[in-house]
Amino acid sequence: MTKQVLHVGIAQIAPRLADVEANLQQHLNYIEQARERGIELLLFPELSLTGYSLREQTLDVAMPVSHPLFDELAAAAGDMVVSVGFVEEDSAGEFYNAQAMVKNGQLVHVHRKLNLPNYGGLEEAKWYSKGQDLAPCEPIAGWPMHTLICADLWNPALPHLAMLDKPALMLAPVNSAADIVSDEFSNPQGWKTNTDFISMTYGVPLLMANSCALEGNSRFWGGSRILDAFGNCLAEAGGEEALISAKVALKDTREARFQLPTIRDADSRLVLDLLAKRVGK
């Protein structure tokens, strides 16, 4: 029988830069705390196992999905769904900013970041390859979900494409520093606008997990949040490490998508035809 209500959580942490072992222990601690609170899905921020500002240290922390670390995390997760951020090494010299999902002793899904920012203080395209796929997963029966990593959500086509799969949950692990884009652009306000819009427009509960680390001059501001299918904020973290949680319900998604049928009325054939005209120019 499909669960009608899901207890979801976010572990807002301050990873130690390039210290995978210390970060792993922190993950295991938060997984245990989440289990004690009855959380059924736990989301960590983007690159939670490594920290963000890696640059040349990417080589030191990159790992394949076959790495024993994921076995340890998967065993600790038990029947909880746990999503963690890491640098994935595929073939030699091919690195991805990726998010791995584990449950019941297994790795069940990996999403590779598609939209690599290369502006302001961001230069991910210098270090990582772009992901080439956007696939949903269903680690909990009746709860299909998509993961989009940070700048993925700032390419409007990607959330739209993800929502055409009609997920019941959107996971958004991010690494957002207050002034990393520019002095004028407000990342905290921008992320509130972005996540409010996606959740409300598509009728989808959304979890945004941010880091709260200090890496050099970059202060990651936290502010992780859990939204319901109407775009209402159910839980929000401050600027420090925290475990936040809330319960989201399928009935809310049903009602939200009835009231605002964005997915039903998307008219993908028309969009595809219009896009083809522009790409063909």
Automatic annotation (TrEMBL):
Gene Ontology molecular function: any one: N-carbamoylputrescine amidase activity
Name of a matching Pfam family: CN_hydrolase
CN hydrolase domain sequence ranges: 6-250
Gene Ontology biological-process entries: putrescine biosynthetic process from arginine
Domain of life (superkingdom): Bacteria
This protein's record includes keyword Chaperone: no
UniProtKB keywords: Acyltransferase, Hydrolase, Lipoprotein, Transferase
Coiled-coil segments: none
Name under which the protein is recorded: Nitrilase/cyanide hydratase and apolipoprotein N-acyltransferase
Organism (species): Photobacterium gaetbulicola Gung47
